[in-house]
Design brief:
It contains 16 helices and two strands. The protein has about 375 residues and is mostly helical. It has a two-stranded antiparallel sheet. The two termini are about 25 Å apart.
């Protein structure tokens, strides 16, 4: 599966006619040209005509007219026409040489996902857990092409989901107080970092904050507050580049650079729900929901149950948002599905001796 992915990726073309691709590459070009000052994405900085030439490559009808450039929004506060996307995806693309950026990004991200699959296999202790882990690893690697190819922001996001799932399981199972605090800060920072790749990744933090809030209201322990505060501090530290980019481009750290339909209030529509029901995302979400319910029922009062509770909160918040969002894409709910599945997988494998294999056997029987 890994070899097949790398072979397919090696033949990709960066000029495939997708507006988002051009805009992510423009952000990368700004970083390569100006360094960290590339956070300023004002259209006037296209004095070397990089954007217009890229738009000409894909046949954009008004490539020579900067004010009609796709993926850009006019900001009333800053009086700038700027890129709507956060800077993270462009930053990672800027690590590779211009003209050969997308292929190495996806190959590297796929290798990292493969590494986490191998790590999960290392923790598997029974035949059923090995089979389940191997199946999920193949699925995760396959998803690096479909649907992750649909947006360059998905490649780094999928890496964050794998690492985030591992750290979530470790946080839920950690016993020493100091380790829990460090892991809470690390998880928060990682999810905040994901916001720099895709702004909707902001919602991936919802399950963690709901868990800390409900846990405090239930137990009243100050330890839970400390974990929640550190998680929140790490979260804001991780998304600092996006806040800074917003301040530069939109005039305020809390102002969005998105416009049009992306910035409209939620509006529930059965047509959007039907689109998700007919898409592969629905399968991933069903697997995540079913696994969460089974873990909640089979591991009450354990670290695995804490992992399942965080996952349940994440799924609920993300589904509520995306099912009421006026736009459907084949990858919108993939991040929460993959973060949930990685968390549940590592949560079952790292659980108390004997519990992980039993959960895997339950899942194997259910799938059979």
């Amino acid at each position: 599966m890994l070899a097949s992915n790398v072979w397919s990726m090696s033949r990709w073309n960066e000029a495939r006619g997708v507006y988002d691709d051009v805009c992510y590459l423009r952000q990368a070009h700004l970083f390569q040209r100006f360094g960290l000052d590339g956070l300023d994405t004002d259209i006037s900085r296209d004095d070397d005509h990089y954007l217009s030439s890229k738009l000409q490559e894909i046949g954009f009808p008004a490539a020579s007219q900067p004010t009609s450039a796709p993926c850009h929004t006019m900001m009333t506060a800053s009086k700038k026409m700027v890129l709507q996307y956060p800077p993270g995806t462009g930053f990672v693309l800027a690590m590779f040489p211009q003209g050969f950026q997308v292929i190495p990004l996806y190959v590297l991200a796929t290798l990292i996902v493969f590494g986490f699959s191998m790590l999960a296999l290392y923790y598997a202790r029974s035949t059923s857990s090995v089979v389940l882990t191997a199946f999920f690893g193949c699925l995760a690697i396959y998803l690096m092409i479909n649907p992750a190819k649909a947006s360059y922001s998905m490649a780094p996001t999928m890496v964050v989901c794998a690492l985030g799932g591992f750290l979530t399981a470790r946080l839920s199972l950690a016993e020493p107080r100091r380790r829990r605090l460090v892991l809470a800060a690390a998880v928060g920072f990682l999810i905040g970092l994901a916001v720099n790749f895709r702004l909707p990744n902001l919602l991936l933090a919802s399950g963690y904050f709901l868990f800390f809030l409900i846990s405090f209201l239930w137990s009243g322990k100050a330890e839970t507050v400390r974990q929640g505060v550190l998680c929140g501090a790490g979260f804001f530290a991780g998304m600092a580049p996006t806040l800074l980019a917003n301040a530069i481009n939109a005039g305020s750290a809390l102002s969005t650079t998105y416009g049009g339909v992306d910035a409209t209030p939620p509006d529930f529509s059965f047509s959007i729900v039907r689109s998700y029901l007919a898409d592969m995302q629905f399968v991933l979400l069903v697997l995540a929901c079913a696994w969460t319910i089974m873990m909640l029922r089979g591991s009450r009062g354990t670290g695995a149950a804490r992992t399942a509770m965080i996952t349940a909160g994440n799924l609920a918040a993300n589904l509520a948002f995306f099912m009421s969002h006026p736009i459907f894409t084949p990858y919108y709910t993939v991040p929460v599905a993959m973060l949930s599945l990685w968390s549940l997988l590592f949560g079952s494998l790292l659980a108390v001796p004997g519990h992980g294999p039993r959960l895997c056997q339950m899942l194997s029987r259910a799938s059979a």
